[in-house]
Structures are given as structure tokens and as C-alpha cells.
From TrEMBL:
Its main location: cytoplasm. It comes from Halobacillus seohaensis. The gene is selA. This is L-seryl-tRNA(Sec) selenium transferase. Keywords: Cytoplasm, Protein biosynthesis, Pyridoxal phosphate, Selenium, Transferase. NCBIfam families: selA. PANTHER family: L-SERYL-TRNA(SEC) SELENIUM TRANSFERASE. Converts seryl-tRNA(Sec) to selenocysteinyl-tRNA(Sec) required for selenoprotein biosynthesis. GO terms for molecular function: L-seryl-tRNA(Sec) selenium transferase activity. The modification N6-(pyridoxal phosphate)lysine is found at K299. The lineage of its organism: Bacteria, Bacillati, Bacillota, Bacilli, Bacillales. It is found in: Cytoplasm. Its EC number is 2.9.1.1. It catalyses: L-seryl-tRNA(Sec) + selenophosphate + H(+) = L-selenocysteinyl-tRNA(Sec) + phosphate.
Amino acid sequence: MKQYLRQLPPVHELQKAEQFETIRTTYHMTKDRLTRFVQLEISDIRERILNDNLTEDFFSKGIEEVIFTNVKSNVSQWTKDRLTRVINGTGTVLHTNLGRARLSEKAVDHVADVARNYSNLEYQEVEGKRGSRHDIIEDLLKEVTGAEAAMVVNNNAAAVFLVLSGLAKNQEVIVSRGQLVEIGGSFRISSIMEESGAKLVEVGTTNKTHLTDYEHAINEDTSMIMKVHTSNFMTVGFTESVDTEDLVALKEQQDQLVFYEDLGSGSLYNFKEQGIGDEPVVKQVIDTGVDVISFSGDKLLGGPQAGIIAGKKEIIQKLKKHQLARVLRVDKMTLAALEQTLKTYLSGEEAREELPTLRDITRLPEEIREQAEKFADELLSLTSSYHVEIQESTSQIGGGTMPGVQLPTYIATVTHNVFSTHELASKLRACSPVIVTRLQDDQVCIDFRTIAENETRQLLEGFLQVE
């Protein structure tokens, strides 16, 4: 053991080696940073020697060669981008683990332009004085929602927190027990409400809540009636809930009572006209007379992560002035992406083709099948290592949105002549770009609903890399 330890070269000698300089220049590292990698590698080898975890073969190539081989591998891994693009072959359109909504090309271009230059984020160019970032896209939000006023925060959980803290702190908020949902990452409406300082008043039961339940709960300490759209789960069977219109009517009978509806996903597009789900359209909810609503930007809207708050002008103005508004504000790139996304909606039917989220959700099965068949034909013409079949299946929308909706689709089921299903899926995840699939009936499945036309070539190259 001691003879192995004596073979470990001092760091200052390794710094003089040609390989040290080669690695440093190749990966554009400072001398100090690369020295740290060398020190860590020597420390690791020393520990393995002391724990008798090395064989004599380990030193057959020479200790210095071993050190630099491992250092180069570690440096290469460290310099890779942490956040990278992924080809989504799962068919789940709003895949939370894969970044949810893809932005339109116009939104991406606008973000890049704003990011690489100075901008009028908080500057009124006509008057030549300071402005407010709240004003940049408020007119667009008002037009697409029909609300008197609107603002943006960094996600819908933040929107809920701001609304509750700004309008109902230390006061009672009535919520149906059937709407005390938990969203991703174990965040619960009840917990958010507790943190905001609002006092939760539960009414009804898990499966049934009546208008009289709300009526009986209202007292002098009541500040708000809150309705939470249960977009991430379904309750079926012996159920009953109170419509938004009825809660608006109840609110109007009370002085100083606010009615707030958290729409969760929040759709600006009427998917029901396409026979897809039963998601409420934001503008229609506003038209019922609600005081304030909130919804996400990176779900059905198809934009960046954001929480959009819209409603009566006096309420939105109060929220804009709240101290939390600065804590929860969004940056210039989010506003740039959201601006172009909203403009696309206002262009009419172009939105369905230009916004990836709308396009993927409403894609026709025949179109998906054609794309899947083309992929299968090309792959089999290039290699004999795979067996591919095209089958009917279903896609999910994902992102906690329309959980009961199954979209008809076509998938390519792929098996390899040598590798098992899990081995093939693992090797595809090691490709660049990463290819994420779904496993079904001991086969790797590619759902082409979420594969863009310009990704097909890279998908083929990934499968050929595995071969």
C-alpha cells in the first residue's frame, strides 16, 4: 500500500506536465481551477489506496496517465451545460419535468433580442423618465382576458399568495373542501393560505358543496370567497359544486366581499370547440363578473413560466402597490416571451399553428401517424438493429391540466436486437440531445405528438448512435 502512495506525484509536478496545459486550453480553464480538479483526483486515488479498493492493474498505464485521463473526463463532464434541450418522445405536451410549454419562434426571437440588448423595462421613452414594468404588457393582458386590469408575477402559486396576502391577510377566506388541492412539489392551497396570513374557512364536503354552505359561513370577518379550479384531478360520481355565476351573485349581495377564482392552468383558447376537455376560457370567466382571477403562463397558455392576475382595476392597483409585488416580479425575458405569446393569440387562428402547445394538443391523429411511419421507414432503411411497429395510442396533456382527457395518437414501438428495453431507453437518454421516451409493454415508445418535424432527423441520429 505504501509503495502505491509513494507513486502519487506532487501537484506542482503535474502542473508542469504537457497534458495539464492541453486540458487547460481545451476547456478554457484557469490554472487554479484545473489544479483543484487534479487535487481532487489525487485525493480520490489516495483514499481508494488506503481502503484497498485498487488493484495493481490500476497502475499499469502509469499513475500520471491515470490521473490526467480521469481529470479530463471530470472536467469534460463539469463543463457541459446543466440545462439542456431534450427531445420529448413521451407525448405529454406540458411535461413538468421537461420544462412544460415550448415557446413560439416569435417569442424566442423576442427574448433573445431583449436579452442581448438594453431595453425599456422600466423606462418611458416618450417622456424620458422612469416607468413601471407592470405597464409593458398590461394592455395585451386586458385585451385577451377582457379584464379591467392585469399584472404578472413569477408563477401562479405566487399569484395565489399575493392575492391572499394583499386582499385577505388576517381575515377569513371561504373555500370548498373539495377544492383544497395540492399542486406539484407538495404545495397545498391550504399551506399557501396559511403562509399568506389569510384564515381558511372550509365549507362543504370533499365531494359535495352547496351554495348554502357558503352563505352560512359568511360573517363580519369574511373577506373573500375563493374558488379553486381543480385542473389537476377529477372527482366523479356523487358530486356537486357551485358554479362561478352563483358565487358572483352571492358576492354581490355582500359589502366588501371579494370573489377570487384560481383557474390554475388558465386557457385563452377554447379547446372545447375542438372536442378537447372542458377547461374554462379565461375571458368567459371574467365575463361572469368575478373580482379577480389568476392562472399560469406556461401551461395551456403556451408561454413562459408566469402567474397572471387579472380582474377589477381597483383590486389590481392595490396588488401592484403591495410589497410582495416587487418580491414576486418577473424579469425582462419573461415579459418579452409573454408579450409575443399574447400578440399571437390576438392574431386569430394563427395562434393554433404558431404556438407549440396549441398545435401539439390539437394535432390530428392522421398527421401524427404519417410522421411516425416516415420515421420508421427511414430508421429501418438505415439499420437492421431495430424492430419498429406503428400503433394507435393516447397522449396526455400533462402539467396538471385536463387529467381526464386522452388524446388519440400514434406511437412507434421500438425494440433492439441486442439491448433490453431499459438499456435502450437509458442509451437514448445519453444521446445529445437527450431523447426521453415512454416505456410500455416492455417496449420503448415514441409518441410523435410532441416530436417537432425538425426534430425527426436528430431522433434518427440518436437511434443510430445507440447502434
